Amino acid sequence: RSDVEKYARGDESMKQEVSVRWMAFLDEIISSKTERDYLLISEVRTFGQQYGLESIQEQDEALSLFHERGLLVRLTASETLKSIVITKPQWLVDGLSKLIRDHDLHLNLKEFETAGLLQEAERTFGDGIASRDLLEFLWKGS
Questions:
Q1: CB-based contacts of 32: which residues, under 8 Å, 6+ apart?
Q2: 3-state DSSP assignment of residue 97
Q3: What's the first-to-final CA gap in the chain, in angstroms?
Q4: How far is residue 62's CA from residue 29's CA, in Å, rounded to a whole number?
Q5: pLDDT digits (tens, 9 = 90+) for 12-53
Q6: For residue range 60-94, what is the model confidence (pLDDT) as tens digits?
Q7: Fewer CB in a 10 Å sphere around the end CB: N or C, the chain?
Q8: 130 Cβ partners below 8 Å, 6+ apart?
Q9: Residue range 96-113, pLDDT digits in tens
Q10: How far is Cα 72 from Cα 49, in angstroms, rounded to an integer?
């Protein structure tokens, strides 16, 4: 822990000043009580306006900074990804790790066969093409 603190104190980017409005915006996003591990961008935009971040550009700058710092995940490669802000990055890691794994170590084909998804599993782990049914099976309870 002390090594991390020492490194962080020496990192010039960690010395960037952030407005109190941005910090209040982040606090509201992180502490938002939802059943999900993400927020819709419309919810985040409302929080931004509540804390004086009137322009979408300023909100996006704040979200980008928070993303760079690992405080949340904001992906912008598609309209679908732009529509959410992941408030618990570990949720994303956990979900992806169910799909991206070493099949020699972590693949139980019996589990997929029992669920009637053996062909989908073989296709996913062989060719990298996943069916929606398989994804829903892998992510059940996540």
A1: 39, 43, 47, 87
A2: helix
A3: 30
A4: 12
A5: 666 678 899 999 999 999 998 778 889 999 999 999 999 999
A6: 999 999 999 889 999 999 999 999 999 998 888 88
A7: N
A8: 99, 120, 123, 124
A9: 887 776 666 666 778 888
A10: 19
Measure the CA angle with vertex 96, ends 90 and 102; round to 5°: 120
Q: Name beta bridge partners: 85.
A: 39
Residue 86's SS3 state is strand
- Contacts of 28-36 with C-beta under 8 Å, sequence gap 24+, read 29/66, 29/72, 29/85, 29/87, 30/71, 30/72, 30/87, 32/87
Picking from 36, 33, 37, the residue whose alpha carbon sits closest to that of residue 47 is 33
| The residue to which tokens 């994303």 are assigned | 92
CA 20 to chain centre: 24
Lookup: tokens for 125? 């782990």
What sign has the CA pseudo-torsion 29, 66, 53, 60?
A: negative
Q: Report the C-alpha gap between 56 and 94 in whole angstroms.
A: 30
Q: How many residues does the chain have?
A: 142
Structure tokens that stand for 91 in this block: 């949720």
129, 103, 101, 134: CA torsion to nearest 10: 40
In the structure encoding, which two tokens stand for residue 105, read together? 């170590």
